[in-house]
Design goal:
The complex is a heterodimer of chains A (270) and B (300). Helix content of chain A is 36%, strand content 22%. Chain A contains 11 helices and 10 strands. Chain A has helices at 41-46, 71-77, 94-104, 109-122, 138-151, 168-183, 195-198, 219-222, 226-231, 238-248, 262-265, and strands at 2-10, 16-25, 30-35, 56-61, 64-65, 78-81, 156-160, 187-191, 204-209, 212-218. In chain A, helix 6 links the parallel strand 7 and strand 8 (187-191). With 300 residues, chain B is of the alpha/beta class. Chain B has 3 domains: 1-104 and 181-260, Rossmann fold, CATH 3.40.50.300; 120-180; 264-299, no CATH class. Chain B has helices at 5-17, 63-71, 73-76, 98-104, 121-131, 136-149, 165-177, 195-212, 223-226, 247-252, 255-258, 265-275, 286-297; strands spanning 21-31, 40-48, 52-56, 81-88, 91-92, 105-108, 183-187, 215-219, 232-237, 240-245. Classes of the chains: A alpha/beta (270), B alpha/beta (300).
């Protein structure tokens, strides 16, 4: 449903941010994008809702070329919660902020109220209904951007660095939301440096470096590839590193443990 | 770099490392006007010169309020009900002038974009000194020294906005170091960095502490990278200090997770294995644990 065909993007400054990117994301897939600062991750996701259009190549969403669609049309399908919520929040109250897109997309008054109430309740923001979004803490602002997007129920949900500023409890909640999105058939794309957050979700992993997609496959497989991760300045999840270190010694009793995922749920040590 | 800088550096090193306590928070309670509850309650904290201390706790636990009370924004800018006292070095925060505090406590924001704004890296680093009307010769020396300490001398003439995120963070940190503070507060310093760049920053903090004796108070949710260099981990909950000790000890404390702390996966596994009866030592990394487990299993 999302397809990048030989996409290159050059910023106005002349800097090439994406180089010959080919990527196909099917409906209901969960994708995590990792890579060094400046690898092109955010530039990549901005192409999905048409905020950026390719300099060369084509981006298709549901088979339609994004250059032939307005960002408003694409946004109905693709919701992005950006890294910095301050770039996204502008209304005078939390309620108005959440209602903004619903109004623009022409939701009926009744449906709007229903969605609004659900979203604010779900993200624990009801008590701030009449507060200015700017009065919220960093973590609350991030939750508000997510509430705004889920309220209009887009088919594709993109989260850019969702765990920044979130404590353990909020991260766990976020992880639950992502699993819920997956179970309801949403296509989810997560851009994150937080490997320990991503890994237990076991997404399809896209590794970017210097504007290119350098690897694409199951997280469980790619996270074992130390050379690949080193090149993209990504660290191995701690439990994967442990697993590999345990197996490295030929006489190790752990050499026969074949599934790194076992370590997520708990020790397999006797 | 003339001979003149040498005693200068020694004097500076001495300030951080040899004077015992650098921060003393005594029985601090603070309530914002019209707030029902105290944001910080009966808080006690003493930090020695040269320590690296992590402050952790769930959102809304009072961390930001405590930091404001340390750098003087409370009570100088945010007023409210203020009980107890906070001293940084020789200054009692509530009585000191903000300009004095600014030279004692340095603050690095989460996002270096909020801190960098000049046209060249060295102008940016010099900005704070210019405001203090430091003589040009001394300014040159101090800016050069800060750039050297952070390994960014070759970036001196570059425009900050052209730099990578890791480089920007170093420039912002150089702008803090150049003021020669005795205590530096880092607010979630690794959250916007890719993992390898984050590890480099963590190593840099350790090296700066070792070389200059500067004390670091670091607020962070992502503990797996920072616990390796920390001397102490302090946990806050509902305005109070609830845990305070060596990071290994605190992460092994069953209450830590209940207070909303992200226990790194390796520490979680280690705790579980210890509860299951394996005689493990304390450590943080996958490397230590792998070695211990292999040794244990092979009976040596």
């Amino acid at each position: 449903m999302i397809e990048f065909r030989d996409v290159t993007f050059v910023h106005q400054t002349g800097k090439t941010a994406l180089r010959d990117v080919n990527l196909k994301v099917e409906k209901a897939e969960m994708l995590a994008v990792v890579g060094e600062n400046g690898a092109g991750k955010t530039t990549l996701v901005k192409h999905v809702n048409g905020l950026l259009k390719p300099t060369k190549g084509t981006v298709l969403v549901d088979g339609e070329d994004t250059t032939k669609k307005s960002t408003a049309e694409l946004s109905r399908k693709v919701g992005i919660a950006f890294q910095n919520p301050d770039h996204q929040l502008f209304s005078e109250s939390v309620e108005a902020e959440t209602a903004f897109a619903l109004k623009n997309f022409g939701f009926s008054r009744e449906l709007m109220d229903q969605r609004l109430n659900w979203a604010l309740q779900f993200f624990g923001l009801e008590e701030y209904r009449n507060s200015s979004p700017l009065a919220l803490s960093g973590g609350e602002k991030k939750r508000l951007t997510l509430a705004c997007i889920l309220a209009w129920d887009p088919e594709v949900v993109i989260l850019d660095e969702p765990t920044v500023g979130q404590d353990a409890i909020q991260k766990e909640k976020l992880s639950g939301i992502i699993k819920m999105l997956r179970s309801t058939g949403k296509t989810t794309i997560i851009v994150s440096h937080d490997i320990e957050f991503i890994w237990p979700l076991q997404p399809r992993l896209v590794v970017m470096s210097q504007g290119r997609v350098v690897a694409d496959g199951p997280a469980d497989t790619l996270m074992r590839d130390e050379e690949l991760l080193e090149g993209a300045r990504v660290m191995q999840p701690q439990l994967v590193e442990l697993y590999q270190r345990l197996r490295r010694r030929p006489d190790s009793p752990f050499a026969s443990v074949n599934d790194a995922r076992l370590w997520i749920t708990g020790p397999v040590v006797r | 770099m003339g001979i003149a800088t040498l005693p200068d550096i020694q004097r500076w090193k001495g300030l951080g490392s040899s004077m015992g306590e650098i921060l003393r928070v005594q029985n601090l309670s603070f309530r914002y006007p019209e707030a029902a509850k105290f944001a910080v309650r009966d808080f006690e904290l003493t930090i020695k010169g040269g320590e690296i201390v992590i402050l952790a706790g769930p959102s809304g636990c009072g961390k930001s309020t405590l930091l404001r009370a340390v750098n003087g924004l409370i009570p100088h800018m945010y007023t409210g009900e203020y009980l107890g006292s906070v001293s940084v070095g020789d200054h009692k925060v509530s009585e000191a002038r903000m300009s004095e505090l600014a030279q004692t406590v340095g603050l690095l924001f989460q996002n270096p974009e909020n801190q960098i704004f000049m046209f060249s890296v060295e102008r940016d680093i010099a900005f704070g000194l210019e405001n203090l009307a430091v003589p040009p010769d001394e300014m040159r020396t101090r800016v050069d020294e800060a750039m050297r300490q952070l390994g960014i001398t070759d970036l001196a003439q570059r425009a900050p906005h052209e730099l990578s995120d890791g480089q920007k963070q170093r420039v912002a940190l150089a702008g803090v170091i150049v003021m020669r503070p005795r205590l530096i507060i880092l607010d979630e310093p690794t959250s916007l960095l890719d993992p390898k760049t984050a590890v480099e920053l963590v190593e840099l903090v350790r090296r700066l502490r070792d070389e200059t004796g500067i004390t670091f108070l670091i607020v962070e949710h992502r503990l797996e990278l920072l616990v390796r260099i920390a001397d102490r981990l302090v946990v806050m909950s509902e305005g109070r200090k609830v845990l305070d000790g060596g990071p290994e000890e605190v992460l092994a404390d069953e209450r830590a997770a209940a207070y909303g702390i992200s226990i790194p996966p390796i520490s979680r596994l280690r705790n579980q294995l210890k509860r299951d009866g394996l005689p493990l030592e304390n450590g943080f990394g996958p490397d230590d644990l792998a070695e211990e487990l292999n040794r244990e299993a092979l009976g040596r």
